[in-house]
Amino acid sequence: MTGVFDTHTDLTVFGGPVRLYRAGGTGPPVLLLHGGMLDTAQGVWRHVVRDLAPDHRVYLIDLPRHGGSRPWRGVLDEAFYTRFLDDLLDVLNLPRVSVIGISLGAGIAIGYALKHPDRLDALIAIAPGGLGAKRKAQFLTWMVTRTPGAMRLSSRYLARRPGTVRQSMIANLTAGAGTRDFDTILALATEEAAAKAEYGEPALDDWMVRAYGPFAMRVNYLPDLPELTVPTLWVRGDRDPLVGHAEMAAAAAATPDSRLVTLPGAGHIVTYDQPEQFSRLARDFLAAVRR
């Protein structure tokens, strides 16, 4: 590793604690936003940050209720994250920045880019949440997530059964336990499960839970994407079971200055499955935007 995660800065952003990591000393700024549930900055970006740092000033945060960004009160939904990101960029003194997000982080970034395109130079959205009017098992998922106490019980369950976390990680990585740095990735996810239980947090982030309605998604950016003026790269792994090709293709077709790249041999967490491929893609895209 690069030592990026050996030091950190703890900030106060929008009234709550945020842990920040930095890499690279020169070049245009890039902000990395990780995914939901058991993700942290140290996890999904651990290899990507090393590849971006030579040409960029890289900023990585643990999203609220992840990693070192605890505790947080209230509902951390889509409206919260729009205000949160605005304040984060002010605190970091970044008038403009490129943003790379994965899953939850990509959904958050899309919502922000639609409202504040003046603050983004470029957007890379990997398997984002927030695309599509309806999901599989829509009503059942909504019912489970809105059952009082269910999400907190899920956190305690995962904390007490690290074997379940391990099996889930193996099932969701294309190389399974053979994934690069698998033991470290698993240790970080296990620590995150324990922290969620300790702080009484739900297993699923509020943004994800509140995006669901009983019969249709309450967060669906597809109709708004023709208004997205930020140069955008849509990225999906060809084995992603969560975000389909149809949704991603529709997003790319709707967004004026964008394209879609599908990475072979990658599932939902592209930066674990194919980190080198993704890093090359990201660097090339960001360089082209600056030309």
Short description:
The protein has helices spanning 41-44, 48-52, 78-91, 104-115, 138-145, 150-160, 162-172, 182-198, 206-210, 245-254, 270-273, 275-290, and strands spanning 9-13, 16-23, 29-33, 57-61, 97-102, 120-126, 232-237, 258-263. It is α/β, with parallel strands linked by helices and 291 residues long. It has a single domain (4-139, 219-290), classed as Rossmann fold (3-Layer(aba) Sandwich).
Description:
- It is a single chain.
- The protein is an alpha/beta fold and 291 residues long.
- The protein has a single domain (4-139, 219-290), classed as Alpha/Beta hydrolase fold, catalytic domain (Rossmann fold, 3-Layer(aba) Sandwich).
- The chain contains twelve helices and eight strands.
- The protein has helices at 41-44, 48-52, 78-91, 104-115, 138-145, 150-160, 162-172, 182-198, 206-210, 245-254, 270-273, 275-290, and strands spanning 9-13, 16-23, 29-33, 57-61, 97-102, 120-126, 232-237, 258-263.
- It has an eight-stranded mixed β-sheet with strand order 1-2-4-3-5-6-7-8, with helices on both faces.
- Strand 5 (97-102), helix 4 (104-115) and strand 6 form a beta-alpha-beta unit.
- One of its GO terms (molecular function) is catalytic activity.
- Residues 28-273 form the AB hydrolase-1 domain.
- InterPro entries: AB_hydrolase_1, AB_hydrolase_fold, AB_hydrolase_sf, Epox_hydrolase-like.
- One of its GO terms (cellular component) is membrane.
- This is Pimeloyl-ACP methyl ester carboxylesterase.
